[in-house]
Amino acid sequence: MKRNYGTAYAVPQALWLTLFFAAPLAIIIVYSFLKKGLYGGVEPEFSLDAYRALANPTLITVAWRTLWVSVAATLLTILIAIPCGFSIAKSRNQAMRLFLVIVPFWTNFLVRIYAWVSILGNEGFLNQALRLIGFRPEGYQFLYNQGAVVLVLVYMYLPYAILPLFSTIDKFDFTLLEAARDLGATRMQSYIKVMLPNIRGGIITAVLFTFIPIFGAYAVPLLVGGKDSYMLGNVIADQVTKTRNWPLASSISMTVTLLTGVAVFLFTSRSHKKAEVAKDLDPRALPAEPSGDSVRAEVR
Amino acid sequence: MKGSDVTVSNVSKSFGSFRALKDVSLEIRKGEFYSLLGPSGCGKTTLLRVIAGFEEADVGTVALDGIDVSGLEPDKRHCNTVFQSYALFPHLTVFENVAFPLRIKKTPNRLVKELVYRHLALVQLEAHAEKKPSMLSGGQKQRVAIARALINEPSVLLLDEPLSALDAKLRQHMLMELDSIHDKVGITFIYVTHDQQEALSVSDRIAVMNAGNLLQVGTPQQIYENPASDFVARFIGETNMFSGPVVSRSGNITAIDAEGFGRITIEDDADILPGVRVSATVRPEKIRISNDRPAEQPLLNIVRGVVHEPVYSGFQTKYIVHTGGGSQVTVFRQHANWSEGVPDIEWKDDVYLSWSARDAVIVEKNIQ
């Protein structure tokens, strides 16, 4: 008798996820419904205080900011990643270019953020260079604002967008662009009307890979943002380490998880409905190639 | 007559060190079904892409109706292409694929519908308008590609090996359909193919190319009956080639001492002096094969040989005959009449091959 070992193979994976994903998530859910302890921690007593506290206007401001910063950074990332993926797919030396995209991962991400601090700082490379070519000697304030946060977020998550976009564009049939040009489309029209719809899958993946981590960003706004660029990730950290309101930190976490979950669900279900119709068809439903005679009979 | 003249003047194109086109000039007439024929890598597709505007010639120009279009982008040229891979847009239905050029031009919806259905009717695909290309068979995809390329009412339709992905029977059918579409729309067709049968059966004129050079332009009959070079003679259909020095010439009858055949006479208008080496060709269907020696006639060449391999294919048998001189001759014998019991020519038979001096053609002169 043939035994199915599929289940057995899944055990390590299931254990790992239970231990390090499901269990912590469960703890957060439980904490969010408890009373806060005096110096952090929780009191074992049911309470909805943490959820009531979400209505705080400061928190709502931060939530809105987190949303628009994430949307802006994701859009920018995708806009840069599409031409990037395109040029890698078209290049003769794909392996080398892909390698260059991945190289930054060899450096710890905190180090890379500090690298940006030393580039953008008041005495940083950028200001020094500007001073050399005659801009104002006191320099410009590049760091510690919204713009710096978006810039560094885009830098951080660009590779996550380039890789899936590259792999989709690489499979794209470039003759379709020629066909579009031939049929009267300008270069731009051929990209928008023919290429974009056909690399939709890659765009969806790239958006998910960038939007989700950016929505929960913590280190980037902390290190290159100012007081006005706090994101939800920073508020949660503050609730844990400074204000020591663990239930509130948990309820904010739950909100972030739910919001991204709902956003991702809405986004993918809408996009997939359009993209997958053609692909999901059963290949057996394809009509057989008619022979010359049967076609002739059909025609007459 | 609708359609445009296409004039290709001294076009050269290189890709790196590879010279794809070497100083090619062509005059294609309005409404002509014109084929570019040659083996793969001969530059025919490159020439088509230069005409379409996908490649820019290094040297030379392309003109439609006398107007130079060399600098124009593909979307600004009044010609459309049917691609080898069809290049249908997978995300659009058949209807929207055909409507694509109209959508780009922002044609009003009602007119789009009318035009698309008229062109789908031309290729008998009205019933499939709402399908996606992935649901169509190869032949159907091909027709969508043709309808889409015609909807802009181009003056020139460029076809890049459009039938190569279809099976043999369907290919024959689509070829006839292409011919009838050409008759209906009346525009210039430029048809790229490596298949000489396809080119011979539908073209008004054929340009034979090899290694980036244009070798010969002519009607199918001219190309087949009067090849201008050994390459053309061998590439178009099957043939027998022989070569040797001219030994005598009287009137328009040339006698040559062909290697492996002996003395062969050819009727030809060419002006050749004795001593010059020439190559000549005679097509297999023009040679008679018989067990008995045919009666001597003034212009009849007779060669003896042994049947090496008969290849029966129903309507005819192809014989490969080894001559006494060590050469090999291919002969086709049509089976116009057949009755059981009549002895046929078989393997290892001693046979006589005969053909008229009028049926052989001198191809190249002064060969080395």
Show the helix and strand layout.
The complex is a heterodimer of chains A (300) and B (368).
Chain A: H1 6-32, E1 34-36, E2 42-46, H2 49-52, H3 57-90, H4 94-102, H5 109-120, H6 125-132, H7 146-171, H8 175-182, H9 187-198, H10 200-215, H11 219-224, H12 232-241, H13 246-275, H14 292-299
Antiparallel strand pairs in A: 1-2
Helix pairs in contact in A: 1-13, 3-7, 3-10, 7-10, 8-9, 10-13, 12-13
Chain B: E1 6-15, E2 18-28, E3 33-37, H1 44-52, E4 59-64, E5 67-68, E6 79-82, H2 94-104, H3 109-122, H4 138-150, E7 156-160, H5 168-185, E8 188-193, H6 196-202, E9 205-210, E10 213-218, H7 220-225, H8 230-235, E11 240-250, E12 253-258, E13 262-267, E14 277-282, E15 288-290, E16 300-312, E17 316-323, E18 328-334, E19 350-356, E20 360-365
Parallel strand pairs in B: 3-8, 3-9, 6-7, 7-8
Antiparallel strand pairs in B: 1-2, 1-4, 4-5, 9-10, 11-12, 11-14, 12-13, 14-20, 15-19, 16-17, 16-19, 17-18
Helix pairs in contact in B: 2-3, 2-4, 3-4
Give a structural overview:
The complex is a heterodimer of chains A (300) and B (368). By secondary structure, chain A is mainly α. Chain A has a single domain, classed as MetI-like (MetI-like fold, Orthogonal Bundle). Chain A is built from 14 helices and two strands. In chain A, strands 1-2 form a two-stranded antiparallel ribbon. The longest helix of chain A has 34 residues. Chain A is globular and about 70 Å long. Helix content of chain B is 23%, strand content 36%. Chain B has two domains: 229 residues, 3-Layer(aba) Sandwich (Rossmann fold); 128 residues, Nucleic acid-binding proteins (OB fold (Dihydrolipoamide Acetyltransferase, E2P)). With 368 residues, chain B is an alpha+beta fold. In chain B, helix 2 crosses helix 3. A six-stranded mixed beta sheet of chain B has the order 6-7-8-3-9-10, sandwiched between helices. In chain B, a hairpin with a 2-residue loop joins strand 9 and strand 10. The chains are: A mainly alpha (300), B alpha+beta (368). At the A-B interface, helix 8, helix 9 and helix 14 of A face helix 2, helix 4 and helix 5 of B.
